[in-house]
Amino acid sequence: MANKVSEDSQDSHRGGFGELGGEERGLIDRSFRERIILIGLIYGERTESSSLQELEELSQLVDTAGADVVQTVVQRRSSPDPATFIGQGKAREVYELAEALDVDTVVFNEELTPAQQFNLEKIFKRSALDRTAVILDIFAQNASTPEGKAQVELAQLQYRLPRLKGQGGQFSQQAGGIGTRGPGETKLEIDRRRLVRRVHKLQDQLTTVGAHRKNQSKRRRHSLNQSVAIVGYTNAGKSTLLNSLANAGAMVADRLFATLDPLTRRLQLPGGESIFLTDTVGFVKKLPHQLVEAFKTTLDVVIDADLLLHIVDSGHPSPETQINAVRAVLSEIGADQIPEMLVFNKSDKLDPSQLLMEYPESVAISAVTGVGVDKLVTEIGERLRSIWNVVELSIPFDKGDILAQVHREGQVLVEHATEDAIVVQARLDSSAMSRLSSFIVSASGSDVI
Ligand SMILES: Nc1nc2c(ncn2[C@@H]2O[C@H](COP(=O)(O)OP(=O)(O)OP(=O)(O)O)[C@@H](O)[C@H]2O)c(=O)[nH]1
Ligand SMILES: [Mg+2]
Question: Does residue 198 belong to any structural domain of this protein?
């Protein structure tokens, strides 16, 4: 935050944590919270209500980042102004307002181009930030593991690099507030070439972590347990569910992006099978693409899953918007083909029967009270069984390519040689089953391993 230590000087009061001393990142002293004006632009096909909902969410994001929204300005235009986003005249009005309300920073609900940011900061005489900077800032405050920190730093650098051209970001670079914190404490004055080198180094580090994770995931596959990933909008209750199902001790908090690192636990289903259940980072509308890119290693857990448990907060005013936002990110990371089971959580807060009707095959639970959780677990087993069929194949010795295909497309459970063939028990999905049908000798349809 740009902590307020002086009433009269605009630039000199932009102290960072260092200047105030003693504050830990992520623990914002409320008496020094940055004062913010939020700006929302309604243009094109955007409706007023969806724009206002987005602004409400942005205000929550700003609050989570540790700042206070003191005024919200909504502007209507046919399209954003290429130079100043809201137009010169409106920008000057916002400057006057910021002066009158003693505001530190102006936050926009859209990604600003580096040029727009530069021009606006010149008019405002204070930082102009966008939604992406706010989300990156929250991630920066919440990152705790080396991997999480590296991912967030990479995303921040990717975001800041194009903004280093000219003098763009002149205020936010000096401030200690939103948009300036990062696990790497990389000062933006450092020249661009060094930042690019740092980006490459982080990418290398993360590739190594990614390779390690892939190995782990291969080992898990080899262990024959199926993998289920818990995904969903931030604050939907994903970590609470993992805790309630697997006693995981995952951090639960009524704030956005509490979880950044995936956490996997083994869970025994009523049918006897074991699965791996993984809690993952929450998604949000317009999740910055730099974060999606940087969090690839984390999101591999989602891509490799056999089933996605998509957790939805039933108490949210517009669950549908959240569902669509999550599905958009899933499709961005290439996970939209993975079977998804919608789980309406927080049923203790709001009766989800309407949602259950709107979304057939969904289930309702309360991760806190435990209502519906047993049914959910049974349903997970059934869904997994409907995706994967356990079959027995008999493959002649001279059909090595078919054996390789079974290994590639399915999960081999047992393999042994008889006098005239290799007999394999494997899990196959229905399309692999039809491709290999001539070698299948029996199909139980249920997983007994
Ligand atoms: N009333 C109610 N609150 C719940 C329920 N499940 C979770 N919560 C609350 O919702 C808030 C967020 O829960 P988390 O489990 O941290 O949510 P998350 O989806 O892991 O959030 P991120 O990791 O931040 O993306 C916490 O305050 C939980 O106590 C529920 O079934 N009912
Ligand atoms: Mg969580």
Answer: no
Is the same domain home to 362 and 239? yes
Of 62, 68, 58, nearest to 31 by C-alpha is 68
In a domain, 449, yes or no: no
Q: Within this chain, do residues 335 and 377 fall inside the same structural domain, yes or no?
A: yes
Query: Tokens standing for 358?
Result: 């709107």
Q: What is the pLDDT of residue 187?
A: 53
Q: Is-contact 124 39, C-beta < 8 A?
A: no
Which parts of the chain have pLDDT scores under 50? Answer: 1-28, 30, 166-170, 172-175, 185-186, 446-449
Domain interval for residue 431: 388-443
| Residue 215, in any domain of the structure | no
One domain for residues 309 and 160? no
Q: Ligand 1 pocket test: pick from 235, 242, 309 the residue with the most ligand atoms within 8 Å of its Cβ.
A: 235
**CA–centroid distance, residue 47 to ligand 2 (Å):** 31
172 lines ligand 1 (CB under 6 A): no
Instruction: Dump the DSSP string for 21-57.
Output: -SPPTT---GGGPEEEEEEEEE-TT--HHHHHHHHHH
Distance between CA atoms of residues 275 and 221, nearest Å: 10
User: Taking the CA of residue 420 as centre, how many other CA atoms within 13 Å lie in the half-sphere pointing to its CB?
Assistant: 0
* Closest residue by CA, ligand 1 atom 21: 235
Q: Is the CB of 352 under 6 A from ligand 1?
A: no
List all residues 6 or more positions away from 11 whose beta carbon is below 8 Å from its beta carbon: 171, 174
Tell me: do 48 and 117 sit in the same domain.
yes
Distance 248 CA to ligand 2 centre (A): 12
Q: Which pLDDT belongs to residue 25?
A: 42
Closest CA to 61 of 321, 269, 288: 288
> Is ligand 1 within 6 A of the CB of residue 258?
yes
Residue type (1 letter), 294: A
Given this model, what pLDDT does residue 197 score? 86
- Tell me if 353 is assigned to some domain: yes
- The CATH number assigned to the domain holding 305 equals 3.40.50.300
CATH number at residue 70: 3.40.50.11060
Judged by DSSP in three states, 66 sits in: coil
Which CATH number fits the domain that encloses residue 431?
3.30.70.240
Ligand 1 nearest atom to the CA of residue 367, by list position: 31
Total structural domains within the chain: 3
Closest atom of ligand 1 relative to the 257 alpha carbon: 24
Instruction: Give the pLDDT confidence of 109-118 residue by residue, as tens digits.
Output: 988 999 999 9
- The answer to whether 120 and 112 have CB atoms below 8 angstroms apart is yes
Q: Are residues 280 and 405 in the same domain?
A: no
So what's the pLDDT on residue 172? 47
The mean predicted confidence, pLDDT, of the chain is: 83
